[in-house]
From TrEMBL:
The keyword Phosphoprotein applies. One of its GO terms (biological process) is fatty acid catabolic process. Belongs to the amidase family. Keywords: Endonuclease, Hydrolase, Lipid degradation, Lipid metabolism, Membrane, Nuclease, Nucleotidyltransferase, Phosphoprotein, Transferase, Transmembrane, Transmembrane helix. Coiled coil: none annotated. The keyword Hydrolase applies. It comes from Monodelphis domestica. This is Fatty-acid amide hydrolase 1.
Length: 765
């Protein structure tokens, strides 16, 4: 037997270069090392004899390694210590799932180290060992995170399930479907009149929330002390409050005693709130029963909804679509029927995006109309744009009832920074015709075909109702979005936001935001310089993300203030009461919000202006809209426009919304306008379907989204042309008949939807 000499390891005649080549080739092509049959089996692979378990990819990888390790290497490379250390790095830990490029990088580093002396080679090998150990720990950490996320999701479901089973034993005679079908105003009235018990209502919504979160992952915490709140409410008798016995869900950022508001960040997991936020205390005072914290995107700087702690929330209308964000958990839970009223926050559209994507109503009030004390934020002290607290619900009257309950003396007492302005009933109840401005596009983000159609159709309906509509264009939106808004939000270069991610993983829903913010200012300017000729919008945005001095920040805030005054002046010159504006819809596909940051222009404009703005669903995406979307190119043709077009595809039947906007502190007028929009849709269907009238238009395309509660609908020759899972808004009793079946389904429960249907005849009463 030949004696082993330097340069030969594992098997006689195999040099270190060949062993490394074979082992790396097998490892990267998914084969074990050492190979079955011993190291000698690898020789066959190297020498073209097939080898045990050789794969087609092995030869390709072998070529790479052979280039990294030529057959004639310096003698210092053949030191057995270096080879053994490298073997530990690359082969002894085959379970580590790390990128192939890093393996090849290690090989290149070793090749460079070959020209060094033996001690330097040993030091390099030690570094590789340390890197391998670190990578193994990193992989194990990722696995633990995935397991922890799954366990937290299961824990929420189990806690809700236990609560539902406990209440079921005490409420066996409750007609759950009837309770869930009631609008908030009627539900509150029945609770006040003792026609329903708070316990029965809580049981009904807990059960539905349990079902919804199993499908959408929208709840992060079951607030178990809702039982104590239930007992306290039951003892109040005549002093129940406006929301007596009403179950309510709240966004995770609202502090709740004994619970952590994580914002999807691990640094917040161990900080439990010592007291409730002001709005939670006011809701409890008004008799509401908070029962769930709902999910948010990591750091809440996204209009998607996913984080590494609780995972991704899905849209209940179409699980391939985003529910919006950052109040995405609220939108999904309410749209799925698991909550009748929710509370969210909005700094760039965080109430309005989920409302539009999920087909519900939401209001962003004037920023300081409702107390923000006790809110958890990922960035504090940023005053260019301030957060608004607002309600989310199925209909506008529910939003008004919530605002009515919050704007009370108790809130003004708890937070003296909030102006003591109660809800002004006379404005909300007014019947005076409105002078309404409208626009189809902000000239920064091209509206989708369904967005444009929704605004124009609503214009016609409002004019028919006696309102006056005049064109109105907010001045210079592209400049405002690209410079003032981006500079105001990230005047520190995003450093305060990045602090949240230290030692944490970044969720994909944030897109490339954190990567861009980590770039030094000089590098941002350099990239912006090269992007400007081809993609001017992206170049300006990138340049706007640099850090600024205090003087520059003050100048930005002054320009924002001047812009606000200019818009108000234009508004008053045209004698407008309110404005009808587009709302980004339908819902984007999962992960696409992070790739289309510029599309927030329709919502963030009114955060910049601090105008109250609400969202009302008015239509659904049709097949014609979907076909027209194929021609969508956007105004700039850059990556944002391309990603927006892709994200909007495959949305037939998904809801489309509009925005209703008023001047600052005119929140009641904004709500009144939203109610006008909602009612005109209902009137349209009343005119289309007279009592017991039969419409013969076969086939007729229509939407059930706007029917009044209590309608009975008989659809003949039914064909579903929306998503695969039909869903209805109601309550309705819906009977389907086809030529081959007299009855294929009946619904008497509330489920939200806006799916387009086709039928040869429709009968309603």
């Amino acid at each position: 037997m030949r004696a082993r000499v330097p340069g030969q390891v594992f098997s006689p005649g195999l040099s270190a270069n060949w062993v490394l080549s074979v082992a790396t080739a097998r490892l990267l092509s998914g084969q074990p090392w050492p190979p079955p049959g011993g190291p000698g089996a690898g020789a066959g692979l190297v020498r073209g004899q097939g080898g045990t378990g050789a794969s087609p990819g092995a030869g390709r990888v072998l070529c790479l390694t052979r280039r990294s390790f030529p057959s004639r290497s310096p003698p210092t490379l053949c030191a057995p210590a270096v080879l053994r250390c490298l073997s530990v790095c690359l082969f002894v830990i085959p379970s580590v799932s790390w990128p192939r490029q890093r393996v090849l990088m290690a090989l290149e580093l070793l090749r460079c180290g070959a020209v060094l002396a033996a001690p330097a080679g040993a030091a390099l090998a030690c570094c590789l060992v340390a890197a391998a150990v670190a990578l193994r720990c990193w992989a194990a950490r990722g696995l633990r995170r995935a397991l922890n996320k799954t366990s937290r999701q299961q824990e929420v479901v189990e806690n809700l399930g236990q609560a539902v089973r406990a209440l079921r034993r005490l409420n066996q005679e409750v007609d759950v479907e009837t309770v869930l079908a009631l609008p908030l105003v009627q539900l509150a009235q029945k609770l006040k009149n003792k026609e329903l018990s708070p316990e029965a209502v809580l049981y009904s919504y807990l059960g539905k929330a349990w079902e919804v979160t199993k499908e959408t992952n929208c709840i992060t915490n079951y607030l178990g002390d809702c039982k104590a709140q239930l007992q306290e409410v039951a003892q109040r008798h005549g002093e129940g409050g406006l929301l007596y016995g009403v179950p309510i869900s709240i966004k995770e950022c609202f502090l709740y005693k004994g619970q952590a508001s994580t914002l999807g960040l691990r640094r917040n997991m161990d900080f439990l709130a010592t007291e409730d936020s002001v709005v939670v205390r006011v809701l409890k005072k008004q008799g509401a029963i908070p029962f769930a914290h709902t999910n948010v995107p990591q750091s809440m700087f996204s209009y998607d909804c996913s984080n590494p702690i609780f995972g991704r929330t899905l849209n209940p209308l179409n699980t391939s679509k985003s529910p919006g964000g950052s109040s995405g958990g609220e939108g999904a839970l309410i749209a799925g029927g698991g909550s009748i009223l929710g509370l969210g926050t909005d700094i760039g559209g965080s109430i309005r995006f989920p409302a539009a994507f999920c087909g519900i109503c939401g209001l962003k009030p004037t920023s300081n109309r409702i107390s923000k004390r006790g809110l958890k934020n990922s960035v504090n002290g940023q005053l260019a744009f301030t957060t608004s607290v607002g309600p989310m619900a199925r209909d506008v009257d529910s939003l008004a009832l919530c605002l009515r309950a919050l704007l009370c003396d108790y809130m003004f007492c708890l937070d003296s920074t909030v102006p003591p302005v109660p809800f002004r009933e006379e404005i909300y109840a007014s019947k005076k015709p409105l002078r309404i401005g409208y626009y189809e596009s902000d000239m920064f983000t091209m509206p989708s075909p369904s967005m444009k159609r929704a605004v124009l159709e609503m214009k016609v309906l409002l004019e028919a109702a006696g309102h006056t509509l005049v064109p109105f264009t907010p001045p210079n939106v592209p400049r405002v979005v690209q410079t003032l808004i981006a500079c105001g939000l990230f005047s520190d270069g995003g450093q305060a936001l990045l602090e949240n991610f230290k030692g944490d993983s970044v969720d994909p829903c944030l897109g490339d935001l954190t990567i861009i913010l980590k770039m030094p200012n000089w590098f941002k300017r350099l990239i912006a310089f090269f992007l400007r000729p081809l993609f001017p919008r992206l170049a300006v945005f990138l340049h706007s993300l640099k850090s600024r001095s205090a003087g520059e920040l003050w100048d930005i805030q002054h320009k924002i203030e001047e812009y606000r005054y200019s818009v108000i002046s234009q508004w008053k010159r045209q004698h407008l009461d309110v404005v009808l504006a587009p709302m980004l819809s339908p819902a984007l596909a999962i992960n696409y919000p992070g790739k289309t940051s510029g599309s927030v222009s329709y919502t963030v404009l009114y955060n910049c202006l601090d105008f109250p703005a609400g969202v009302v669903p008015v239509s659904t995406v049709t097949l014609e809209d979907e076909l027209a979307l194929e021609q969508y190119q956007g105004y700039f043709g850059d990556i944002w426009d391309q990603m927006l077009q892709k994200g909007l595809k495959n949305s037939v039947g998904m809801p489309v919304s509009v925005q209703c906007v008023a001047l600052p502190w005119q929140d009641e007028l904004c709500l009144r306008f939203m109610r006008e929009v909602e009612r005109e849709l209902q009137h349209k269907l009343h005119e289309l379907h007279e009592s017991r009238a039969v419409v013969q238009a076969g086939p007729l395309e229509f939407s059930l989204h706007d029917l009044n509660p209590g309608h009975k609908v008989h659809i003949k020759n039914f064909q579903h042309t929306g998503a695969t899972q039909p869903s209805w808004e109601g309550p309705f009793q819906i009977l389907f008949t086809t030529p081959t079946s007299t009855k294929i389904g009946e619904k008497d429960s509330w489920m939200h939807c806006s799916y387009v249907k086709r039928a040869s005849s429709i009968e309603t009463d």
